[in-house]
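Much of what follows relies on a compact textual record of a protein's fold. Here is one such record, which you should read through line by line:
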Amino acid sequence: MPRLSIIIVTYNSTAYIDTCLRSLVEQRPKVDHEILVVDNASTDGTLRSIRQRWTGVRVVDAGENLGFAGANNLGIRQSFGSLVLLLNPDTAVAAGAVDALVGAVDRRPDVGIVGARLVDAGGRAELSWGNMVSPFAELRQKLVKRSAESLTRREREVDWVSGACLLVRRDAAEEVGLLDERYFMYLEDVDFCAAVRGRGWKVLFTPTAEVVHLRGQSRATASAATEQAYRRSQLAFYDKHHPGWTPWLRRYLKLRGKLPDNRSSHD
């Protein structure tokens, strides 16, 4: 049985999934692993393309768009590794990055989740970790983004790491019932890390693993839908973690014309 299961959720991802899979195949991690792609009912031929080009990759057709959390949970349930790497399709994994993530959890038996240093195509760092989301933490996160280069140079324990590249122990994931499927897209990684920390595990950010994240490519054609999805997740997150702030958040979003409608993110 593979020690590591790499799970990639796709949705209309033909523009970049080959780059992601090529980075994993050509710079093969040393750890024994499997690669599982879960496709969220793509309409651009993603599923067919992967099956034709990448015969060593296991593909699961979700049959409908389950969202990020739901599709990853499907992948986790159908995979076998004691470690699980959640990886965005719009990433390219540098040589040694996956093994560096595995090495980080091997060194720290108290760590349940570890995240990588994310950079864009030009090598500029993305702030891929942070403090628990709250009204003040969200403001701080926006202010410190300009310092991402220096803030992502040292290993540290954090409240959350980005789901674009997140390694979790299967035991820790199963302890919390996997990802919360109330989040269709956005903030499910923060919530997942909070749940794992709530069980006594640490969350670690390590710069020894670097991954290129072509952030925005997967969302560029659906900015209005993306905004709606983010705001739904934001409200769900505050309902769960900061219920006293939810009425204020709703008023703020309504004043700015950003209060999401009641339609499902599947629409």
Q: What stands out?
A: Residues 223-241 form the longest helix (19 residues). Residues 4-213 form a domain with the Spore Coat Polysaccharide Biosynthesis Protein SpsA; Chain A fold (CATH 3.90.550.10). The longest strand covers residues 202-213. Confidence is low (pLDDT under 50) at residues 217-221.
